[in-house]
Amino acid sequence: MFDLSAINIFTEKVGLPDRAIDVEEIPWVPVKTGHWFKPLRFDLATGTWTIMTKISSSAAISRHRHTGSVFAYTIQGEWRYLERTWVAKAGTVAYEPPGDVHTLVVNGEEDMITLFIIVGCNQYLDENDQIIGQDDVFTRLKLYQDYCSAQHIPLQNLCY
Asked: Which region is the signal sequence (predicted)?
């Protein structure tokens, strides 16, 4: 017979506590003109970063490659990749496999807000596919911490 009490004791000793975070208490952190993110979770063990991304209709995310998979859920507005035919609208779920290369643009005048769960890093590419920059769980955590410090905003513990 399987002893559930042993699993419960183990979980209590090594498991992480549950959390409920009010997203309104987390600021929109500027990345560049017309592009912000709101961090929800930084998993330093797996390199997974969960963020809400907001992009105005005048901005874009330059051509980039993902080293891991990406899950996206569109909350507001419309966006697409220049290299694809589909358009993500509010309610759209998208999956991007590791190695996928694309350029994100916003459709219409409404800001796009999308929840992204990103494993690994985004490698920004030039026209010759050379890496010219990257974002990962550590760069985004630092950007969040630096922004909160400069704006005197209390940090949320988002590393778990």
From this structure: none
Which of 156, 126, 151 has the alpha carbon at shortest distance from 25?
156
Alpha-carbon dihedral sign for residues 13, 16, 20, 26:
positive
Spans of all domains in the chain: 46-160
> Can you tell me the distance from the alpha carbon of 153 to that of 157, in angstroms, rounded to the nearest whole number?
13
pLDDT average per 10 residues of sequence, the chain (160 residues): 69 74 95 97 96 95 96 97 96 96 95 98 96 97 98 92
CA distance 10 to 157: 24
* Cβ-based neighbours of 31, under 8 Å, separated by 6 or more: 37, 143
Residues across the chain = 160
C-beta separation of 120 from 134 below 8 A: no
Q: What's the whole-model pTM score?
A: 0.89
